[in-house]
């Protein structure tokens, strides 16, 4: 194994990537359960029963009272835990990810900028979880806009940094760029897409939201996998260097 640059020769933390991986799996499980417990109703039809994948938004899961006027305690609690955990996991990742980009000055700058914006994005996801749409719609939508727009900046900055990194496999850079394309499309949908007040617009907006939500979870999982791979490579390199330094021969 070729030694890594001296600037990278400190053992990076790995627990945030493992934590975020757990939270990603948890998100899938809890949101699925929240859909099962949702009482019913959509923005355009209060009489519908249960949760419709193509006519209900994720935000409906977080409402304290469903569109059909029934209490939504279980679903909203599961949704809040799932999304707040993702926010916590994202902040944790962003605080340690620059450790993997210390080998060159340009990579340090890109990673630090990406992580600074990433912390804002993670906090915004927590804000979405803590502001039910039926109680704080203005704040809820503000957090949604901040979360997705800032995350697009994060993805682009880290995509470039990963592409330029001498030791990062290119497949992880491709992962960033592929998700950037999907996320850019969703940001456009939020800003200029069809209105959810129409039947067709509701289907497109709801389906688009599910696509970006689950794509973001997949992206986080994939990048945690890559970060763990590189962190372990750095750890082995440091251990090898220390062993050589202490070898009297």
Would you summarize the structure shown here?
The protein has 249 residues and is mostly helical.
Low-confidence stretches: none
Based on Cα principal axes, name the global outline. elongated
Major β-sheet annotation? none
Tell me the number of strands: 0
Structural class: mainly alpha
Q: What is the C-alpha radius of gyration, as a whole number of Å?
A: 21 Å
Termini separation: 21 Å
Number of domains: 1
> What is the percent of helical residues?
over 70%
Count of helical regions: 7
Strand fraction equals under 5%
Mean pLDDT: 89
Assembly state of the chains shown: single chain
The secondary-structure element order is HHHHHHH
What does this protein structure show overall?
The protein is mostly helical and 249 residues long. The chain has one domain. It has 7 helices and no strands. Helix 3 runs antiparallel to helix 4 and helix 6 packs antiparallel against helix 7. The longest helix has 48 residues. The protein is elongated and about 70 Å long. The protein starts with 14 loop residues before the first helix and ends with a helix. The model has no long low-confidence stretch (mean pLDDT 89).
